[in-house]
Task: structure prediction
Amino acid sequence: MFNCFKVLSVLGILLAAQGVSSQEIRLLTEHLPPYQVAEQGEVVGGSSYQIMQETFKRAEIKVRHEAMPWARAYRTARNLPNTFIYSMVKSAERASLFHWVGLLHTQHYYYYSLRENNTISLSNIDEARNYIVVSVRDSFAANSLQRHGFEPGRNLILVVSYQAAAEMLKLGRADLIFSNEAALRSVDKVPSQFKSHGDVVETRALYVAANIDSDPMLVDRVARAFASVKADPAFANLFDAGD
Result:
């Protein structure tokens, strides 16, 4: 009887694993150099990209790897089980909405303006509220701004991409963008057209996350593969890249 139970248990695990492998597993991200570099909707390079490629290779999971604007990627990952997303800030608002697979990098957030704009003077968040700030919808930066009293339609503009945010600055519709250097590099490889104001406002970690209703066995499998990549000295430089 005991042996029969063991056989049935192993069979159940195998069938569950087969079920996971038969489903479409999606891995979503945005163009965010140097972490992930996208061209025409395809992810082609970057430190986080290489980490994720190795992770799913070790997990032996076939994945549909896609790049899209952040707001769309975030909504898709929120609503579609067995969908993974990176590189995403683990904020208080998001903590319970996803499974958090592993830590990739850290980022420093500043207020930036166009370098040619000499009319802005600020050293703290209270002064920043006197300007119009642009941010990407559903991003950590947008959530943080609203948490600190910025309001859409008054002193906050929400757009779908960092490229659109930069255009708002160039058109004079916004004074500042609350962002990090990696995001600005997605607009300009050498973000020389921007300048930061004041000290670091926030420092946040970037993670790989999964839809909260994803198959627990799938999430665990990916998490174990990710941990093995992170523990491998051959990949240590990728986790340090961009920090």
About this structure: The first strand starts at residue 25 and ends at 29. Residues 2-22 form the longest helix (21 residues). The chain has nine helices and ten strands.
